[in-house]
Design brief:
22 strands, about 45% helix, Rossmann fold, 6-stranded parallel sheet, about 725 residues, alpha/beta, Arc Repressor Mutant, subunit A
């Protein structure tokens, strides 16, 4: 049997993982180290060398695209169709199981799947049936509560309210929602996984059938698995207790591939610790490290290694390449965010002028709101771009909501704006009331605003709807009067606060609400930096026209040669010859909310590591000494992540000119107190508070202070000369 097509393309470490003896295997696959190749070649090896039937292999990936690519590669390697292989996402495989075993899963035979919007609509019906106000019980919050508990494997009956009335009500809503799903014959995405897990857990004979069938379970991106996904895999491929006389023919052989240094989805429920948990649950598992990188230059890899080494909770590996040393990483210290965007724009135009392609370039940023200034700079310089995996700033729903309020204040006859915000935040003006208003407006040939006034006066609406509509119109009139004399950015700020939009989005759970709030705050920054071109319009009217024109410009088409813009979370799995990593300031990246949380800070560092390792040939880092973000001016200090990169690998593009208060001494490094081991990221011990990690350093000499996150006592600021910290 000729195994050379399987083995020849592999390096030594890859070959060792692919040909590992049967049994549990954990592959730590660094960025750009060929993990997909290892997975596909392992499957081919099992079939060709070990004689495993394709029907006995189950491979799980995180995207349908990755599953399709894996199937295609295996077909090319083996020269046979891959139809017998079960390859898919967790949700896809769970769906397949439930279709086959709908009776055992207690589902309707033709059950349908709810997407996120459908799920929210059903939750709204449940709220209405319970006579609960959506402004108090926000559908998105209820949705988050339900899905989060399903991801942790918890049904309503498993939850305790802890004498908390709000939690007790959420548990009741969860139960009512489940009943509604059962009546309608539908399941949501989180339900697919939980129901598939319960299908096996509660049907011993069925579980045994699949355990014997799928002895070889391969899982990609293992660091991104959540609780229910890990439990599902562990149920299918159970660990064999050490020393047990288990039937060798029935033993499972899980083969998981992941990278704890690229675990960046904690906000979605992913548990990076599942890699460590796998080693505890499968103590006999063989560990392989893929450290040879085929993507980046040596300089970029050494910088990424130096950065990620500051994380304590990692299994550990060191990326290397046999390729070129490459250019140094370049650091640009901008005066402000506009200077930063102009610098990036200038370098992109230089790259294109020298024959380079714009599609080779990515601009990465931590916060979604950072895109606005780059978009303006690119539009002004006629640099085509696309926002990867997202919308341009003025196309985002929350920005359109805010602009609709502003337009209605400026022009009551704007029907589109009236319809968009009359019930946002929810104020009890439903579809029937809106239909009545539209009919009245058509009949009278008037605007919706005028029709609303007429309907209220004539009593054509129910008392509740009429009262809510009157309150909305009074709010608009009040906002128009109270903001008329304010400068533009204060107008925008006032409208966001008084309308309730900010609070509405702030109450959304998880990451989405925070992103939307940041975008709304960035709209204030946009207004603050806006200069009207003429005096024909008021500043507000001019700004609204500017927003409409910006939104109308449109992104470059997919086929065009254009720059790719994206958040760091969106960049995972991608690679670009030239990468600009922007906004490397304390409080922005790492994000402010992570500064006092050791786990959060380590995830931020992993996010920076992911960003750096997207670069193949050139990497630019930038930060601004002054930044107007979320409507606030701040004077920044270079991110600790810049300071954690070995200095010999970084070249400053130009000497820094200080335009704000001094924030650093020396080359990028804040002056460190003259105490051994007292530096950012160092682990220390305090006589009273125990062990911790230094998160921040301020001052020098006798006045030096350090911020330490203690494992048991939380975060504290201490004077170095009195703290008597012992390095660990």
């Amino acid at each position: 049997m000729d195994l050379s097509p399987i083995l020849n393309p592999l390096n030594e470490a890859q070959r060792a993982a692919v040909t590992a003896p049967l049994g549990p295997v954990l592959v730590l696959a660094g960025a750009g180290s060929g993990k997909t190749r290892v997975l596909t070649h392992r499957i081919a090896w099992l079939i060709q060398a070990e004689g495993i039937s394709p029907q006995g292999i189950l491979a799980v990936t995180f995207t349908n695209k990755a599953a399709g690519e894996m199937r295609g590669r295996i077909e090319r390697l083996l020269g046979v169709p891959g139809g017998a292989l079960w390859i898919g996402t967790f949700h896809g495989i769970a769906h397949r199981l439930l279709r086959i075993h709908w009776r055992e899963a207690r589902l309707a035979q033709g059950f349908q799947i709810l997407d996120s919007e459908d799920q929210q609509r059903l939750i709204k019906k449940v709220l209405k049936a319970a006579e609960l106000d959506e402004s108090r019980w926000v559908p998105r919050e209820v949705q988050w509560f339900i899905n989060n508990n399903k991801d942790e494997g918890r049904r309503p009956e498993h939850l305790k309210d802890g004498s908390d009335p709000s939690r007790a009500q959420l548990i009741k809503l969860y139960a009512a929602y489940e009943q509604a799903c059962a009546r309608n014959g539908v399941v949501d995405f989180a339900e697919l996984l939980l129901r598939a897990f319960e299908l096996w857990r509660e049907n011993a004979q069925l579980l045994e059938h699949y355990r014997r069938r799928f002895r070889h379970v391969l899982v990609d991106e293992f660091q991104d698995t959540n609780s229910i996904q890990y439990a599902w895999m562990r149920l299918l491929a159970p660990p064999v207790p050490p020393g047990s006389e288990a039937d060798a023919a029935a033993a499972s052989h899980p083969f998981v591939v992941g990278d704890d240094d690229q675990a960046i989805y904690r906000f979605r429920g992913a548990r990076a610790e599942n890699l460590q948990q796998f080693r505890r649950d499968y103590p006999q598992a063989r560990l392989f490290r893929l450290e040879q990188n085929y993507r980046s230059t040596s300089n970029i890899l050494e910088a990424a290694n130096g950065l990620i080494a500051h994380n304590a909770s990692r299994l550990g590996k060191n990326l290397w390449t046999s390729g070129a040393r490459g250019e140094p990483i370049r650091l640009y210290t901008a005066f402000n965010e506009r200077d930063e965007a102009e610098f990036v724009t200038h370098r992109i135009r230089e790259h294109a002028a020298q024959g380079g392609l714009r599609r080779e370039i990515a601009v990465l940023y931590r916060s979604n709101a950072q895109s606005r200034v780059f978009e303006e700079a690119f539009l002004s310089a006629r640099v085509p771009y696309r926002v990867y995996g997202g919308l341009r700033f003025f196309e985002r729903a929350e920005i359109k909501d805010a602009l609709a309020y502003l337009r209605l204040i400026s022009n009551r006859r704007d029907d589109a704006s009236f319809e968009r915000v009359v019930n946002l935040p929810t104020r009890g003006i439903g579809a029937k009331s809106l239909d009545a208003l539209r009919a009245a407006a058509r009949g009278a040939g008037s605007s919706l605003w005028e029709a609303a006034g007429a309907c209220i006066a004539s009593g054509a609406l129910g008392s509740k709807a009429a009262g809510s509509l009157h309150a909305f119109m009074a709010l608009i009139e009040r906002l128009a009067a109270s903001t008329a004399t304010l400068v533009l950015h204060e107008q925008v700020d006032q409208v966001l606060k008084v309308s309730g939009l900010l609070e509405h989005y702030r109450r959304e759970k998880a990451d989405r609400g925070e992103v939307r709030v940041e975008n709304l705050e960035e709209l204030v920054s946009a207004a603050r930096g806006f200069t009207p071109e003429g005096s024909e319009l008021s500043p507000l009217e001019s700004f609204l026209a500017h927003a409409a024109l910006e939104a109308g410009e449109g992104q470059a088409e997919q086929w065009e040669d254009c720059v790719q813009m994206m958040t760091l979370h969106s960049a995972k799995g991608l690679e670009f010859p030239l990468v600009f990593l922007a906004g490397l300031e304390e409080g922005l990246f790492p994000h402010q909310r992570s500064l006092g949380d050791l786990d959060g800070l380590e995830e931020e560092r992993r996010l920076c590591y992911v960003g750096m390792t997207r670069a193949m040939r050139q990497l630019y880092l930038s930060y601004a000494e002054q930044r107007r973000l979320h409507g606030i001016d701040s004077y920044g200090q270079a991110s600790r992540f810049v300071r954690e990169i070995p200095e010999g690998l970084i070249e400053e593009v130009r000497p820094r000119v200080q335009v704000s208060r001094p924030v650093a001494v020396g080359r990028f490094r804040a002056e460190e107190p003259e105490v051994a081991g007292v530096r950012l990221g160092a682990r220390v011990r305090h006589g009273k508070f125990g062990d911790g990690v230094i998160l921040n350093v301020e001052g020098s000499g006798a006045h030096a202070r350090v911020q330490v996150n203690f494992e048991r006592q939380g975060t504290k600021w201490l004077m170095v000369q009195y703290a008597n910290l012992q390095p660990l």
